[in-house]
Structure formats: structure tokens, C-alpha cells
Amino acid sequence: LAKTTQPISMDSYEGQEVNITCSHNNIATNDYITWYQQFPSQGPRFIIQGYKTKVTNEVASLFIPADRKSSTLSLPRVSLSDTAVYYCLVVLYSSASKIIFGSGTRLSIRP
Amino acid sequence: DAGITQSPRHKVTETGTPVTLRCHQTENHRYMYWYRQDPGHGLRLIHYSYGVKDTDKGEVSDGYSVSRSKTEDFLLTLESATSSQTSVYFCASRPGQGTQFNEKLFFGSGTQLSVL
């Protein structure tokens, strides 16, 4: 299983773009990179997923370099409601594999 | 979001008592997972299931057992609860039937378990 490393915490201000980088040096060929968001007292919620290059949806963008050993979640123009814990996962979906969460990045947005 | 419900939402029990938590999904998902989350920490995988009657251990399976007799239900049992099992328990499921790119986990709302 590929291990992920991400910052424990980050702070930013409303209206700023926030980039959270995740390192996954031993990612395997068939692994996907997935990010989840968790608010207090709630279960995690899927944000975005990618395999290579760039993926964008209505919530975020995910940048993956060619070597796939890292990825960056980009949140444009954050608001107070983006304060949450963000988890980076490397997942193999093609088999009955374990899906492991790390400790995540606690993002705090200030007014 | 997928229809995943956990019951009970809150449970207080005594040390040594057996406890069963239920996860029910209405999406016909193949894979189901049980996680625990302790204050200030990430989620840790307890057990998971890859089909009816097919289960495997996760990262922290000691003291827990699971059963899946139907696609929609995944039960987590603490045979003899201990104070160290006080935690929030989350259930999740994923389809396992479409393209890999569309795969993702859907989570329930969690069960707060306190073992006194």
C-alpha cells in the first residue's frame, strides 16, 4: 500500500487559493489519487480523484505531475465553510483492497 | 449521496458487554468498510467486505468481528467492549461495479460509542 504524507495543518484567509500537497513516492501503476473532506461530526466526503495530469470539478482541482509521486489539491477562493480536514489517499480499486486514510491536513480559514 | 445509514447513532455501554453496530446501504454496493476515528486523528480501517460473506481484516481488527449476510448490511461486533474502543465508528461503501475512475467511498453519519 502506498503511504501518503501531507502537512498536518494549514491556515489561510477567505478569498485565497489554497494548495495542499501530498507525497506518495511508492505509488503503483494502477493506483488512483483521491481526496476527501471531513467536517466535524460528519463522515468524509469525496472531493476529487485523478490518475494523471489535471482534473477539475466544481469544487477543486487536482494536479498530478508526470511521475505521480505527489499531487496537489487546489481550492480556489476559499471561504470559512472550507475549514475541514482534507485526506489524500492512494487507492487500488481493481481488487478487494484496503482503503487506508492517513491523518489528513487540518485546514483553517480565517475571515 | 448513497443511502448509507448507521445504527445506533449513539451508544453507551459498559466494559465487557457485547455491542453490535449496523451499517445499511440501499445502493447495491459491493464493497463495505468499517473505520474508527478517535479525537484529533484520522480514520483507521477495522474490517472490510468485498462481497456477501467475504470479509478481511484492516489495520486495527483486534477485538472486532464483522459479518455480511446480505449485500445491504454490514455488522460490526465488539465481542467484549473495552474502554479503548470508545470512538466514533464510520461505515462506508463503494460500488465496485463501474469504471475505476468513478469509484469512490460513500460514508454514513457515524456512531458515537462510549464504553464506560
Topology:
The complex is a heterodimer of chains A (111) and B (116).
Chain A (H helix, E strand, L loop, with lengths): L8 E5 L4 E6 L8 E7 L6 E6 L2 E4 L4 E4 L5 E6 L8 E8 L13 E6 L1
Parallel strand pairs in A: 1-9
Antiparallel strand pairs in A: 2-7, 3-4, 3-8, 5-6, 6-7, 8-9
Chain B lengths: L3 E4 L2 E4 L5 E7 L5 E7 L5 E9 L2 E4 L6 E7 L2 E6 L8 E8 L11 E2 L3 E5 L1
Parallel strand pairs in B: 2-11
Antiparallel strand pairs in B: 1-3, 3-8, 4-5, 4-9, 5-6, 7-8, 9-10, 9-11
Describe it for me?
The complex is a heterodimer of chains A (111) and B (116). In chain A, 0% of the residues lie in helices and 47% in strands. Chain A has no helices and 9 strands. Chain A has a 5-stranded mixed β-sheet with strand order 1-9-8-3-4, with no helix packed on it. A 4-stranded antiparallel β-sheet of chain A has the order 2-7-6-5, with no helix packed on it. The termini of chain A are far apart. In chain B, 0% of the residues lie in helices and 54% in strands. Chain B has strands spanning 4-7, 10-13, 19-25, 31-37, 43-51, 54-57, 64-70, 73-78, 87-94, 106-107, 111-115. Chain B is globular, with a radius of gyration of 14 Å. In chain B, strands 2, 4, 5, 6, 9, 10 and 11 form a 7-stranded mixed β-sheet that branches. Chain A binds chain B through residues 32, 34, 36, 41-46, 49, 51, 85, 87, 91, 93-94, 96, 98-104, and chain B through 31, 33, 35, 41-45, 48, 50-51, 54, 56, 58-59, 90, 92, 94, 96, 100-101, 103-110.
